[in-house]
Protein backbone atom coordinates (compact mmCIF):
# COMPACT_ATOMS: atom_id res chain seq x y z
CA UNK A 1 0.00 0.00 0.00
CA UNK A 2 1.26 3.45 -0.87
CA UNK A 3 -0.31 6.72 0.20
CA UNK A 4 -1.33 9.04 -2.61
CA UNK A 5 -0.28 12.69 -2.70
CA UNK A 6 -2.57 15.40 -1.39
CA UNK A 7 -5.36 16.62 -3.66
CA UNK A 8 -3.72 19.46 -5.58
CA UNK A 9 -4.17 20.33 -9.27
CA UNK A 10 -2.17 17.87 -11.35
CA UNK A 11 -0.71 15.87 -8.46
CA UNK A 12 -2.82 12.71 -8.75
CA UNK A 13 -2.56 12.31 -12.55
CA UNK A 14 1.22 12.82 -12.39
CA UNK A 15 1.56 10.36 -9.50
CA UNK A 16 -0.59 7.70 -11.18
CA UNK A 17 1.30 8.11 -14.43
CA UNK A 18 4.60 7.59 -12.59
CA UNK A 19 3.16 4.33 -11.23
CA UNK A 20 2.33 3.11 -14.74
CA UNK A 21 -1.44 3.56 -14.54
CA UNK A 22 -3.21 3.70 -17.89
CA UNK A 23 -6.84 3.60 -16.74
CA UNK A 24 -8.71 5.39 -13.94
CA UNK A 25 -12.30 4.44 -13.10
CA UNK A 26 -14.16 7.11 -11.14
CA UNK A 27 -17.56 8.46 -10.35
CA UNK A 28 -16.67 11.91 -11.56
CA UNK A 29 -13.97 14.37 -12.46
CA UNK A 30 -13.90 17.99 -13.51
CA UNK A 31 -12.78 19.23 -16.91
CA UNK A 32 -9.29 20.11 -15.67
CA UNK A 33 -8.74 16.64 -14.23
CA UNK A 34 -10.05 15.03 -17.41
CA UNK A 35 -7.58 17.07 -19.47
CA UNK A 36 -4.68 16.26 -17.14
CA UNK A 37 -5.36 12.52 -17.20
CA UNK A 38 -5.78 12.55 -20.98
CA UNK A 39 -2.56 14.50 -21.42
CA UNK A 40 -0.72 11.79 -19.52
CA UNK A 41 -2.20 9.03 -21.65
CA UNK A 42 -4.48 7.77 -18.88
CA UNK A 43 -7.96 6.67 -19.97
CA UNK A 44 -10.60 8.09 -17.64
CA UNK A 45 -13.82 6.09 -17.27
CA UNK A 46 -16.45 8.20 -15.50
CA UNK A 47 -19.94 7.80 -14.13
CA UNK A 48 -19.15 4.54 -12.35
CA UNK A 49 -20.18 3.63 -8.82
CA UNK A 50 -20.31 0.51 -6.73
CA UNK A 51 -18.04 -1.73 -4.70
CA UNK A 52 -14.44 -1.55 -5.91
CA UNK A 53 -14.03 -5.30 -6.43
CA UNK A 54 -17.27 -5.57 -8.41
CA UNK A 55 -16.38 -2.56 -10.59
CA UNK A 56 -12.89 -3.93 -11.24
CA UNK A 57 -14.29 -7.33 -12.21
CA UNK A 58 -16.79 -5.75 -14.62
CA UNK A 59 -13.92 -3.80 -16.21
CA UNK A 60 -11.81 -6.94 -16.57
CA UNK A 61 -14.80 -8.81 -18.04
CA UNK A 62 -15.42 -6.01 -20.55
CA UNK A 63 -18.85 -5.35 -19.03
CA UNK A 64 -18.28 -2.02 -17.29
CA UNK A 65 -20.73 0.67 -18.34
CA UNK A 66 -19.57 4.28 -18.13
CA UNK A 67 -21.92 7.20 -17.78
CA UNK A 68 -21.96 10.92 -17.16
CA UNK A 69 -19.54 12.34 -14.62
CA UNK A 70 -21.13 12.27 -11.18
CA UNK A 71 -19.17 15.36 -10.11
CA UNK A 72 -21.71 18.01 -9.16
CA UNK A 73 -19.36 20.79 -8.17
CA UNK A 74 -16.57 20.46 -10.73
Q: Could you characterize what this model shows?
A:
With 74 residues, this protein is mainly α. It contains 3 helices and 2 strands, in the order H-E-H-E-H. It has helices spanning 11-18, 31-39, 52-60; strands at residues 23-25, 43-45. A two-stranded parallel ribbon has the order 1-2. The radius of gyration is 12 Å and the shape is globular. It starts with 10 loop residues before the first helix and ends in a 14-residue tail after the last helix.
The end-to-end span amounts to 28 Å
> Main beta sheet: strand number and arrangement?
2 strands, parallel
Helix segment count? 3
How many runs of DSSP E, i.e. beta strands?
Answer: 2
Low confidence ranges? none
Computed structural class: mainly alpha
User: Approximately how much beta-strand content do the residues carry?
Assistant: 5-15%
| Sequence of strands across the biggest β-sheet | 1-2
Helix content: 25-40%
Q: How do you describe this structure in short?
A:
The model has no long low-confidence stretch (mean pLDDT 92). By secondary structure, the protein is mainly α. It contains three helices and two strands.
Relevant terms:
single chain, 2 strands, 74 residues, 3 helices, globular, 35% helix
What is this structure's SSE topology?
Layout: H1 11-18, E1 23-25, H2 31-39, E2 43-45, H3 52-60
Parallel strand pairs: 1-2
